[in-house]
Write a structure and sequence with these properties.
Residues 1-139 form the UspA domain. Belongs to the universal stress protein A family. The chain is 45% helix and 21% strand. By secondary structure, the chain is of the alpha/beta class. The protein has one domain: HUPs (Rossmann fold). It has a five-stranded parallel beta sheet with strand order 3-2-1-4-5, with helices on both faces. The longest helix is centred in the middle third of the chain and has 22 residues, at 56-77. The model has no long low-confidence stretch (mean pLDDT 84).
Amino acid sequence: MSSRILVPMDDSEMARQALEYALENHPDADLTVLHVVGEPSPWGGAATSLALEDDLEGAVAEHAESVFDDARALAAEYDADLTTETELGHPARAILNRAEDFDVIVLGSHGGSLVDRLVVGNVAQTVFRQSPIPVVVVR
């Protein structure tokens, strides 16, 4: 049984289902929810406006708070605790950089907007192919 689980989350339904899967199937695990705010790019997106902030770390934390509120509410339904963390960068790279601190990664099969998926690529596919630890992809 896995004891340290990383659950990358955005505000998508698939990410929520991944967390629910982790909570249901690993009730005694230490869960960490990771929200990655994408890097600013010429194509726009939420992270581009963050690049103009004076307090980048504070803006990233504020951006992640609604995702974390949803994650905490879901965890409370299972009487579970979780840890939350934020990263700024490319989502797949940020997840893979953290992978060795965990026993397994549980993530949704897709998330974000269509534009995000076209520009950034399929995060789940990249993590699945390159992860040094087991990956569970929830659909």
